[in-house]
Amino acid sequence: MKRYTLLALGLALVGCVTANVQTLSPKTYAAIPVDSVTVFLDVSELQADSIAYERLALIHLKGDQTFTDQESLFKKAREKAAELGANGVVFAGMEEGRTTWNWLTGASTSNRQAQAFAIRWCVISGRDERP
Description:
Distance between the termini: 55 Å
Helix content: 10-25%
Strand order of the largest sheet: 1-3-5-4-2
Order of helices and strands: HEEEHEE
Shape: elongated
């Protein structure tokens, strides 16, 4: 019976993306709507002279490879960034995680992982303006 309870709990969590946030900035900002958070796939998208940004936090994301796609990682990163008041997320990398075997269920799982920076960014007209 205990094995089936754990299996049911495991199935309930399937497809969920977990996120751990490591704060990088001492500044705090009010939460913003998730729809206001822009996803950048690479930091090179922010290299223009007219864009300034501040890194607020590093977000570690993880989900089961079978049920987690890139879009679900983006969604969770945007949610965490919005909670921090960050209006952008820059992905630092995505990878397939290692495969693990669960002795309770006899099933093997593989995780999809990503890291992203929650940022506050803005377009500047002069070089002295910063977020």
